[in-house]
Design goal:
Residues 12-157 form the Ketopantoate reductase N-terminal domain. InterPro entries: 6-PGluconate_DH-like_C_sf, 6PGD_dom2, ApbA, Ketopantoate_reductase, KPA_reductase, KPR_N, NAD(P)-bd_dom_sf. Its EC number is 1.1.1.169. This is 2-dehydropantoate 2-reductase. Belongs to the ketopantoate reductase family. With 306 residues, the chain is of the alpha/beta class. It has helices at 18-29, 87-91, 114-120, 165-174, 183-204, 217-233, 240-253, 260-266, 277-287, 292-305; strands at residues 11-14, 34-37, 50-53, 59-62, 66-67, 78-80, 104-107, 126-131, 134-137, 142-147, 151-155, 178-179. It has ten helices and twelve strands. Strands 5-2-1-6-7-8-11-12 form an eight-stranded mixed β-sheet, with helices on both faces. A four-stranded mixed β-sheet has the order 4-3-10-9, covered by helices on one side.
Length: 306
């Protein structure tokens, strides 16, 4: 059944960072209505279009409308792509405004955030996901798609199970997006890779590809052992050798990239260390598992941030 033109765009995307801008652009190019929800403080400096550079290098000016928390009542589907540490703060203004039937989709690095969102919006369908697309943000709403990756989403609560069709809509824009009832397994797999790549590259200020050199061999091996121990305690099938292989594969495939944590550090922004390594440490403490190398990286990045 065709959608009435009087209805707001099907997608409301919260978080106009690098990946959010790229996803908004891809959704728009696929013919799906999308709007960007931005902070009230940005009312005076809104830009009418997004400057998007696709994977093939082609440039596009896309007229994607903006909206604000006050427009939350007209939101039909909310895709949240802020940094992990900003998710709760960004969603809080929507309490009492966002309809209870509106599905909330969380796409961010790390874990432990969905539990907090579920407390804020206990009745809403809640979905979580992981994506490996690459993106960069320039000035004045300029975004570049730097790498095509995989995207998986799944239910965080029972109500979320009724919205598996969201994966199909994302696939229309991304080329691939799939539903996984056991999405926690994929979250842990990505968390493990992030725990190995992000803190090391951020601390030593190196590109991802540098991790494949002998300099980082011992640290990566120890990290993979610690991660496997915690994941097994969490009920996940995980072997240290396989985790190490996956991390090295990602590092090699993204050899020229600066990790998001390194980019945040270089820009003086708050990193996602709390939602990545911090979450691992919390689960390790819960199970009484020692993770000294992960802990030392967490402390080093946290101190640098301070």
């Amino acid at each position: 059944m065709p959608r009435s033109n009087t209805l707001p765009p099907f997608w409301t995307l919260l978080g106009a960072g690098a990946l959010g801008g790229v996803f908004a652009s891809l959704l728009s190019q696929s013919g799906q209505g999308v709007r960007l929800m931005v902070r009230d403080s940005q009312r005076s400096r809104l830009h009418p279009t997004l400057d998007f550079t696709a994977l093939d290098g082609s440039a596009h000016l896309l007229p994607i409308p903006r909206c604000f928390a006050s427009d939350g009542a007209t939101t039909r589907r909310l895709l949240v792509m802020t940094k992990a540490g900003q998710v709760v703060e960004a969603l809080r203004p929507l309490q009492g405004i966002l309809g209870r039937e509106v599905p909330i989709v969380l796409l961010h690095n790390g874990m432990g955030i969905a539990e907090q969102v579920a407390e804020l919006f206990p009745d809403n369908p809640l979905l979580v996901g992981v994506t490996s697309h690459g993106a960069m943000r320039g000035q004045h709403y300029s975004f570049r798609h730097t790498g095509k990756g995989e995207t998986w989403i799944g239910p965080f609560n029972e109500a979320g199970r009724q919205h598996r069709h969201i994966a199909d809509d994302l696939a229309r824009a991304l080329g691939q997006a799939e539903w996984d009832e056991q999405i926690q397994r994929r979250q842990w797999q990505k968390l493990a890779i992030n725990c190995m790549i992000n803190p090391l590259t951020a601390l030593h200020r190196v590109k991802n590809g540098e991790l494949s050199t002998p300099r980082f061999g011992d640290a990566l091996t120890q990290l993979s052992v610690e991660l496997a121990d915690v994941m097994q305690a969490e009920g996940m099938e995980a072997g240290a050798d396989e985790l190490l292989r996956r991390a090295l594969t990602v590092a090699e495939l993204t050899a020229d990239n600066h990790s998001s944590m390194l980019q945040d550090r270089e820009a003086g922004r708050v990193t996602e260390i709390d939602a990545i390594t911090g979450y691992l440490l919390a689960r390790a403490d819960h199970h009484g598992i020692a993770v000294p190398v992960n802990r030392s990286l967490f402390e080093a990045i946290s101190q640098k941030a301070g």
